[in-house]
Specification:
Number of strands: 12
Radius of gyration: 19 Å
Strand content: 15-25%
Structural class: alpha/beta
CATH superfamily of the largest domain: Response regulator
Distance between the termini: 39 Å
Strand order of the largest sheet: 2-1-3-4-5
CATH topology of the largest domain: Rossmann fold
Number of domains: 2
Bound molecules: calcium ion
């Protein structure tokens, strides 16, 4: 199991490398955002531990870029910033987990093991309906064998439709399940997201519009 630690503080990086290696992981380190991103992108790591305040490229930008090219790679944020807006922004950008400094090393290892278990159990987390296949661990979707990368929201919307395949799901239901109750029920975010989803799924898209009722995922 190979882990990449992107951390500019030499003392913390050294501590993490020694500690994680003692736990049986192979660990590489990077001391700035640009090098970290290049390594994470090019090498086959199973997990990345990412600091946020980094020289050359901020951790959140590294996360954002990584999500584009390696959407399945678990990224655990380890940062001195413990404010809620930063945490929420990290999760919005696709962080798998967030741990604030100062941190407990045992807790870090426990979380790393949980995320690695999820990636290695991906056979158990594949949902198929007709030609659509959702890989929940890697958050990847294939339609008739062709891979499509979806945003978090699109993925959750599709997952909700797939979970209720063959049944009509109302816009209100999708709005509350996927966006939460804070959204204005008069908003058209559901329709906009469905349109994007259909475009990404291509001509084989199994999403049907049921007039005045909502949407349905057709069962082939
Ligand atoms: Ca730092």
């Amino acid at each position: 199991m190979r882990i990449l630690v992107i951390e500019d503080e030499p003392r913390i990086l050294g501590f993490l490398q020694v500690g994680l290696e003692a736990e049986g992981f192979a660990v590489d380190g990077a001391v700035d955002g640009i090098d970290g991103y290049a390594l994470a992108r090019g090498e086959s790591y199973e997990l990345v531990i990412l600091d946020l305040r980094l020289p050359r490229l901020d951790g959140l930008r590294v996360l954002e870029e990584l999500r584009r090219c390696r959407p399945e790679l678990p990224v655990l944020i380890l940062s001195a910033r413990s404010d809620l807006p930063t945490k929420l922004e990290s999760f919005r950008l696709g962080a798998t987990d967030y741990l604030s400094k100062p941190f407990s090393f045992d807790e870090l290892v426990a979380r790393v093991r949980v995320h690695l278990r999820h990636t290695s159990e991906d056979d158990a987390s594949i949902v198929r309906v007709g030609g659509v296949e959702l890989d929940l661990a890697r958050r990847r979707v294939t339609v008739d064998g062709v891979t499509t990368h979806l945003s978090d929201r699109e993925f959750r919307l599709l997952y909700h439709l797939v979970s209720h395949a063959g049944k009509i799901v109302s816009r209100e239901r999708l709005l509350s399940e996927v966006w939460g109750y804070s959204f204005d029920p008069g908003s058209n975010v559901v329709d906009v997201c469905i349109r994007r989803l259909r475009k990404k799924l291509g001509p084989a898209s199994p999403i049907e519009t049921v007039r005045h009722a909502g949407y349905r995922l057709a069962v082939a």
